[in-house]
Each structure stands twice: as structure tokens, then as C-alpha cells.
Amino acid sequence: MRVAERIARIALFEGLPQEQLDELSRIVVEQRFKKGQSLFADGMKAAGMYGIISGKVKIYKMSLEGKEQILHIFGEGEFFGEVPVFAGGNYPAHAEALEDSRFLFFPRAEFVRLIQREPSLAMNMLAILSLRLRRFTHLIEDLSLKEVPGRLAAYLLYMSDRDGGSSRLELDITKGQLASVLGTIPETLSRILGRMSQQELIRVEGRKIEILDREALEGLAAGEKLE
Questions:
Q1: Beta carbons of 31 and 103 less than 8 angstroms apart
Q2: How far is the C-alpha of 7 from the C-alpha of 180, rounded, in Å?
Q3: Which among 226, 59, 65, 58 has a CA at the least distance from the CA of 146?
Q4: Residues linked to residue 62 through DSSP beta bridges, in sequence order
């Protein structure tokens, strides 16, 4: 597959005309990282941003006590590290490959010069970045205002919507990682999954989860209490 075709599969660049994709292909560098390998650390000077060809990466922060809080988990076709590309400065979190992964790396200096020459490229990116900001705002709201059952319900509904409304879901991360995303511990997550299963809101088989009562999950996500 040509480099321009790989770039076109990254959400940030969907719908760009061929000439802009070709321009991007001239500055991009393909990189590979092994499972567990760090791409960058919190506070490191930002050299550029990444688009994922294959694999997964987690973006996380570490507390002073050494506790990890996963902010995002990104997979094929998604992008990350874009904020300091525009704002300058340092990466605001850590990034680590969750499995053997391949990335398209866009060096900051060359990318900024390209945007200055192609304003329509910036307009396309603004639309995608606005959607991401909305998602991040919801995440902060979930972590700060909702109880863990509500956070879990909101996450399952998000997965369902992402998959076109499907009631049959498969976690693409471990339950330990999901617990970190939800701001809790694995034991608490397992207990809540068990209670939701007992009340026939969901059915759990390993990483497979089937939504049995979507209305009840929507109620939990809106702030109702789990019995």
C-alpha cells in the first residue's frame, strides 16, 4: 500500500484531496514499536504526532503515588500527540505500545510548514479535533461526577454506538486496563460486572459482553444507582 493511502486511513486526514495526501507522504516517517515500548514520556519535548497503521497504544498519566491512570487507548486509524504539534512545548502524558505496532510519525516542524501552505488541511483537522475534545470532556465528566457503575455503563454504550449500535461487544483491552480507564481497580470492576450480570443488564463471557437491557444502562449512565 502506498504511503498516501495509509495516511488517508488516519481519521485526521480522511477526505483530503490526493495532492494534500501526497504532500503529507513526503514528510511522514514510518516507525515500529514493540509491545511495552515507550513512544514518549510525560514532559518530553514534542517532536511530532502519530497516526496508527496497526496495533494499539495507551496514553496515561502517573500520580505522585505511582498510580497509573489511562486517559485513552487508541487503535488502527486513530492519531495522538497532536496537541503539542500546534501548541508547542512538551507531551502532556506518557504513550506506550500495548502490542507490536506500526505508526506514521509526522515531524512537527515539517507538518506546521505544510499547514501554513495548505489552510484547507487545517480546517479538516479542526473538525476532527473538535469531536475529540467533546469526547474528552465527557470522559472528565464521567470520572469526576459519576459512580463507577455509571462510568462502566457509559463506556459500554460508547462501544455499542461506535460499533453501529451493536449489542454484542468485545473488549479490545484487558479488564485491568478497562478498570484504569474508568478510574477504579480491577476488583471493583469485576464486582460491578457481576452485579450487572445478576440483574440481567449484560451477559459477560471473558472479553465478550452482550447488552441485554440498554435502557437500564442508559439510566445508569445518566446517574441512576445500581441496585
A1: yes
A2: 30
A3: 226
A4: 68
Q: What is the pLDDT along the chain (227 residues), one digit of tens a residue?
A: 689 999 999 988 887 889 889 999 999 999 999 999 999 999 999 999 999 999 999 999 998 888 888 888 899 999 999 888 877 889 999 999 999 999 999 999 999 899 888 887 787 777 777 776 777 677 666 666 678 999 899 889 888 887 888 999 988 888 888 898 888 889 999 999 999 999 999 999 988 999 999 999 999 988 888 87
Helices 186-198 and 148-162 meet at what angle, rounded to 10? 70
Edge-to-edge strand ranges of the sheet holding 208-211: 168-170, 208-211, 202-205
- What type of residue is 96? E
Residues 6+ apart with CB under 8 A from 17: none
Exposure letters 183-220 (e unless 16+ CB within 10 A, then b): bbeeeebeebbeebbeeebbeeeeeebebeebebbebb
Domains of the chain listed by start with CATH number: 3-132 (2.60.120.10), 146-221 (1.10.10.10)
Closest listed residue to residue 121, CA positions, set 76, 82, 88: 82
pTM for the model stands at 0.73
Phi and psi torsions of 40, nearest 5°: -160, 165
CA dist 73 to 58, 115, 134, 195, 214, Å?
4, 27, 16, 26, 24
Q: What angle do CA 3, 105, 163 make, to 5 degrees?
A: 75
